[in-house]
UniProtKB/TrEMBL annotation, chain A:
This is Protocatechuate 3,4-dioxygenase. Transmembrane segments: none annotated. Residues 8-271 form the Extradiol ring-cleavage dioxygenase class III enzyme subunit B domain. It comes from SAR86 cluster bacterium. GO terms for molecular function: ferrous iron binding; protocatechuate 4,5-dioxygenase activity. The keyword Acetylation does not apply.
From TrEMBL, chain B:
InterPro entries: LigA_sf (IPR036622), PCA_LigA (IPR014159), Xdiol_dOase_LigA (IPR011986). It comes from the Bacteria. This is Protocatechuate 4,5-dioxygenase subunit alpha. One of its GO terms (molecular function) is dioxygenase activity. The keyword Plastid does not apply. The lineage of its organism: Bacteria, Pseudomonadati, Pseudomonadota, Gammaproteobacteria, SAR86 cluster. Keywords: Dioxygenase, Oxidoreductase.
Length: 279, 132
């Protein structure tokens, strides 16, 4: 049987990808950011997941205003890094576990979550930066990836509760898949940041640290945070944190915190990162 | 009945909701066209004529030519779409964000190094009275 064994949350700041791609990861500014992932790289080399369900958001790269799906599950064979205006990141293509992805789609939609299925799209920094942070710069990604894109660009995104509940449906779906697979779920984005307007640069360390604390054993209360609170307290782009709740919902109620990292700033953003294993 | 927009009282912030997406449809689609290298070249060669290929308002076109990101957003642009414009210019998110705050690039970068903009005094419009 397939099983979700662990979860990872991490910010997916585009400048982190650019720093790595341009050989700047040893510069004073970036060193502490990458150091926060040293443990994570060792940990994942030992864990060897077969598949990562990677919850992220597209930043107007694959989805223009032609089409804005709230939850879009990648079921296609492979996904290329997107050209976001400065050429595609020099990172490997992402290969999907198609059998598990289509199984998840059928299970989750049957459980009342009306997913959109995406077979063809490019994946932007939201998906590729977390892979780089966890795996470094390999020739090929060492596992299959099932992209789950969540709309957080066109307001309103799905609620925290809806995301948390979708996580639970994902766990049920994975656990009913026959093949023996070590599956991880990653929730990406956040933490506090605002990229727009005169209020750009907003960071709320108190909000973020409270979120990290409660994320371990009181995620139910985080799921009730309304959109307005995210925007007001954690910045207009801080609302990406609802995606973390999908990851948390997919894990057991009791989890072990293996790693926690928080750093300000990476460009405009507070970087948060957790590794949780199912108890 | 109109949908409540409680986020309207957050200072210095434009929420890209369905109304803004309607107003900004063409400026955002224009910005996304810059994800193709050949379109970036054409835009750089003659910005005005490239913009004229899009059903944007004159205000929207002028805001793009001026690289006035706050103006673009007030006219329906969304920052992730508009990012394709400053990426085409070779500018980072931090440089672009700084330009929206009225701070210099150095001041903004220093503010981020010092822990970012505090939410205190920046949660509600009424807290901003007397400030610019
Ligand atoms: Fe993001």
């Amino acid at each position: 049987m397939a099983k979700i064994t662990a979860g990872v949350t991490t910010s997916h700041v585009p400048a982190i990808g650019a720093a790595l791609d341009n050989g700047k990861s040893n510069e004073e500014y970036w060193k502490p950011v990458f150091a926060g992932y040293d443990f994570s790289k060792k940990w994942i080399a030992e864990q060897k997941p077969d598949v990562v369900i990677l919850v992220y958001n597209d930043h107007a790269s694959a989805f223009s205003l032609d089409l804005v799906p709230t939850f879009a599950l990648g079921c296609g064979e492979k996904y290329k890094p997107a050209d976001e205006g400065w050429g595609p990141r020099p990172v490997p293509d992402v290969f999907c576990h198609q059998e598990l992805a289509s199984h998840i789609a059928q299970s989750v939609i049957t459980d009342d979550f009306d997913l959109t299925i995406v077979n063809t799209m490019d994946v932007d920094h939201g998906l590729t930066v977390p892979l780089s942070l966890m795996f470094g710069q390999p020739e090929a990604w060492p596992c299959k990836v099932i992209p789950l894109a969540v709309n957080v660009v066109l307001f309103p995104p799905p609620s925290g509760q809806r995301c948390y509940d979708l996580g639970k449906a994902l766990r049920k779906a994975v656990e009913s898949f026959d093949e023996d697979l070590n599956v991880q779920i990653w929730g990406t984005g956040g933490m506090s940041h605002q990229l727009q307007g005169p209020r750009a640069g907003l960071i709320n360390q108190e909000f973020d640290n409270n979120f990290l604390d409660k994320f371990i054993d009181d995620a139910e209360s985080l799921a009730k945070i309304p959109h307005l609170d995210y925007v007001r307290e954690a910045g207009s782009e801080g609302i990406e944190l609802v995606m973390w709740l999908i990851m948390r919902g997919a894990l057991n109620e009791k989890v072990i915190e293996k790693h926690r990292f928080y750093h300000v700033p990476a460009s405009n953003t507070a970087v948060g990162h957790l590794i949780l294993e199912n108890k | 009945m109109a949908i409540a927009k409680p986020y309207a009282d957050i200072p210095g912030t434009i929420i890209f909701d369905a109304d803004m997406a309607r107003i900004g449809f063409h400026i955002n689609q224009f910005a996304l066209s810059l994800m193709k290298a050949e379109n970036r070249e054409r835009f750089k060669a003659d910005e005005r004529s490239y913009l004229d290929e899009w059903a944007m308002t004159e205000d929207q076109k002028q805001a793009v030519l001026d690289r006035d990101y706050n103006k673009m957003m007030s006219l329906g642009g969304n920052v992730y779409f508009l990012a394709k414009i400053f990426s085409t210019d070779g500018l980072s998110f931090q440089v672009a964000a700084a330009s929206m705050t009225g701070m210099s690039q150095q001041e903004y970068a220093q503010m981020m190094l010092d822990g970012g903009r505090s939410p205190d005094g920046n949660r509600y419009l009424h807290e901003q009275k007397g400030k610019i």
